[in-house]
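Recap for those who missed Tuesday's class. We walked through two folding examples back to back. For each one, the amino acid string is listed first and its predicted structure tokens come directly after. Nothing is annotated here on purpose, so try labeling regions yourself before you check the end of the notes.
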Amino acid sequence: DLTGRIALVTGANSGIGFATATELAKRNATVYLLCRNPKRAEDAVERIVAQTQSKTVFWKQVDLSDLQSVRTASQQLLESIEGSIDIFIHNAGVLPLEESRSVQGYELTLATNLLGHHLMTRLLWSKLTGRMILVSSGGMYMAPLSTSQLFTEQFPKFDGVRRYALTKRAQVALTEVYALMGASQGLLVHCMHPGWVATPGVEYSLPGFWKRMEHRLRTPLQGADTILWLTIADEPTKSSGKFWFDRI
């Protein structure tokens, strides 16, 4: 029972984020869906309310690739949330097929998957207690951590899959840093790999993979299982800064 707990979920209007937000609402948490598209966010809130009968599901607009949007949304959350933020799920991510830039000029994958989440975390840091979960990906196994490649500004040939892998690998490294920083305020931080899940993002960004694997992929709820376990169960409270796959 998460009555009285406040949860933030980025990218919560579809896929794993939606499944996670729905399950948190079922357990009576106050859930904020942090989404880029207002219409999709509103629709997602309506669907979650219809499924759970919860009266504490809300949404805030934030484009994680736009650092000014992140600042605005963070300030709104600080003003509207009384007390602490008990659960923060870093779920939103993109895998662009072609090179694209954020409003501030950063490569879009870096801006969305890493910079936006990091800035929001730091801006909300004073209110973060409880647990923070970073949703990485099996894609991160394809790239070692390389800050020089991560922050490169010139791409002779853009490789969206590699850019995605680099950002997801960086999330794992940041988890260890956040865990050390958060220990003094009781913040537990974990990173996880949800497995290969049938989501709109996978279908769009990896069409060949989707065609071959569509009927073997996990459902969004199955992908959300370890997120929820890390958020709710007692076992994960025994450590911080770990990387998890299927609760292991």
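Example two. Treat it independently of the first, because the proteins are unrelated.
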Amino acid sequence: QSVVELIRDANSILLLTHERPDGDALGSLLATAMVLTKLGKTVSMVAGGPIAPLHNFLPQIGNVKNELSASSDFVISINTAQVGVEKILYKRANDQELNIYITPKAGELLTDQQVSFKSGEAQWQLIMVLDCSDTSRIGPLFEQNADLFYKVPVINIDHHPGNDYFGKVNLVDFTATSTAEILVSLFESLGQGSSLLNEDVATALLAGIMSDTASFQNSNTTPKSFTVAAQLVAAGARQQEIVRHLFKTKPLSTLRLWGKVLKELQEEKDERFVWSSVTAADIAEAGATAEETSGVIDELLKTVENVDFALLLSERDGKVHGNLRAVEKNVDVSQIANMFGGGGHVAAAAFDMADVVIDDVKQQILFQIKQYQAKRIQGIAH
């Protein structure tokens, strides 16, 4: 109810999600923007970093910006209690100077004591952050505009267990498969009895759910996720289009990159995990982007038998990115990600190490994970 009230009171709303947005982040962002626009709001969508080409089919994806221009007005106030103003003019003196001329009414005198200056209100009245466990996941967009988050109310909508409740209002549901799943009930509340779901909104939301459940294959899939998915299909969600683009279409560059990942695949038999790595040079050689590594861990590495989890290390944006997927149900990979300052879900987690390359940190990462696994396996044995 608090979320609904904040949305209804705001006319201009900024929507944000995490860097390198996945299907849930983008589906949630786009669906929310379409619903808010339908409600008469002025909406801006921003996601830091590149958007993977496989998401280009999503409705209105071209409206997502990757930069945030958080400007506000500069206000010149004139106390007119004693002095009337006849006219105001402005004239550019040169390339670096703008003069503003204030002419008082005849016979009256305006002094500098009657003029004051202040910054105006931010251009947005509300910020909604989708699919982010904390503000650091927003990346430079947050770092460069931190003041904005103190001036403007923030709604935090997320499903990650590590969420740190950074919003003025926090709609966080750890039992949900995805942020998109949470939004379905929010849109019902905003609709006040009338459906806000059209084909495009339903398609964006279903893409978010299918992305985070790997098309209902992951262990996080629940009876509710099937119920919500059925509701979205009934509303016109283009399920086969989602399947084709997210799961059945791969550029040649992706296949080349995945081949490199498989060639480098290693098994740590005693510690029950498999891992691979791909460098920035490997990615460039394949003619791919770092985002194209995302599917290989789910579709290939996670299918290995007799292991607890899979790890993929990749170089992107001057960082080493670690991606973890659980294979066995009793394994919590978010605990491993936490060891390196990351986080995520029990079955899927990630971490980043800044200003390093894989060759510098690979052995350190493997050593710490092996120690963790040895203790965990020993504990289970006893």
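Answers for example two:
The chain has a mean pLDDT of 90.
DSSP finds 13 helices and 15 strands in the chain.
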